[in-house]
């Protein structure tokens, strides 16, 4: 049984003017334990909608989403979310206090949660920054706090909504490498939302390409049989890049044409 | 672009280099402007009353300060000052204690907002000074009326600011807490409340300024003591010096209280923010 399955999911937003917008329709995909599923699509295709539905921040208008066979009814600690921006961090808490937030809410004893939070900060490369406040850290470091914060909470899976999109190119590729390393040690299931083909081929064990919105759905799924560290200059990497590119090209064109 | 940025960064780094007179220099760069500003205010005042107006109706600061000393020695100033401050403090603390939870509830729950908005939106346009009339009818000229008026002038500003702070909270802060397993109550105490602190303090700071206006007005009309009463007596008995003593006291007191608020917002609430 897959960890997560989307069955014919539809999400329609109602606007105050009475104009409804259907972001996704007939959306179906399974997420297996231990995989990194990259959901790739042009902007405005409803990738983030899919993540919000699985996170439980919003409810689907039709279809159903199952996790471990149970319908998703709201946000819970088994699905840890890493947001794109840094506005989800708590500016009044230090790095280590942010990371232990979930543990504190569950009343894990202070010593134990401090020890665990420190360990995860070390895992994401923030050793020595524990006492700093988010405002004192760079964009890349803030995203590391977010990652450490969900990992320390030990969720069943990670939902990442373009977590590196706001970073500069160098930091982004460094963060991608480190996330790949973390995944290799922890083997956590990850749903990773991105619009960047390169990022999807770098991180994904499977890539789901979405159609241009509205009424988006999964156009096709590509298994990435690359093991170990991936190099952007490898022939196999380039082949996957081309394959994904061919699939998404038309969708990007459609999405641009619709945006007018 | 890269070069000038680097230069400014280096320049900034080299400013607090340790020097023998570093502390004095820093003190002057921080407070020098204030000191100069206040000194020039009193110098101008002195010059104006000596050479421009030269009337007993506009006493120079030297006269006012010596009068203030006398009033300090015989206890009159302290008595009136503490009477006014006590009323402000009691009313202000009560108003804030009532206003913060109401504001939090209004900001967090839509039905509560819909229910209470008519009250806040209606009452906040009736100035507390206008309410002196009913306050005196209801509570007499004792402490009750003044404390009621200070609570009245405090509570709406604190409510509105607190509610605005809650609505300004970035949705992702709440969502993150939800998916980390926090309950609604935990989100309220660990996310919504701390994120709103700067708005609460700003509301209280504005309310404090209002409290000064209100207490003087209330004491002018009906009181046995207080800075407002001192002003009124000064007018009755043509004690112009005393009027000026209470005016200066009000100005200084307001300035000090406001600075304390600004400093505490800056120091304690700098890290608290609904958005970042």
Q: How would you describe what is shown here?
A:
The complex is a heterodimer of chains A (260) and B (276). Chain A has 8 helices and 10 strands. Chain A has 260 residues and is an alpha/beta fold. Chain A has a 6-stranded mixed sheet with strand order 6-7-8-3-9-10, sandwiched between helices. Chain B has 2 domains: 18-54; 61-268, MetI-like fold (Orthogonal Bundle). Chain B has helices at 2-14, 22-53, 61-73, 76-108, 110-123, 128-139, 143-167, 171-179, 184-221, 227-236, 240-268. The radius of gyration of chain B is 24 Å and the shape is flat. Classes of the chains: A alpha/beta (260), B mainly alpha (276). The interface between A and B is medium-sized, with 32 and 23 residues.
Short structural description:
The complex is a heterodimer of chains A (260) and B (276). With 260 residues, chain A is α/β, with parallel strands linked by helices. Helices cover 37% and strands 24% of the residues of chain A.
CATH architecture of the largest domain in chain A: 3-Layer(aba) Sandwich
For the terminal residues of chain B, how far apart are their CA atoms? Answer: 27 Å
Amount of beta strand of chain A:
15-25%
User: Helix amount of chain A, in percent?
Assistant: 25-40%
What's the CATH first level of the largest domain in chain B?
Mainly Alpha
CATH topology of the largest domain in chain B: MetI-like fold
- Oligomeric category: heterodimer
Rg from Cα of chain B: 24 Å
| CATH class category of the largest domain in chain A | Alpha Beta
CATH architecture of the largest domain in chain B: Orthogonal Bundle
Tell me the CATH topology of the largest domain in chain A. Answer: Rossmann fold
Q: Mean of the pLDDT scores of chain A?
A: 90
Report helical residue fraction of chain B: over 70%
Q: List the total number of helices of chain B.
A: 11
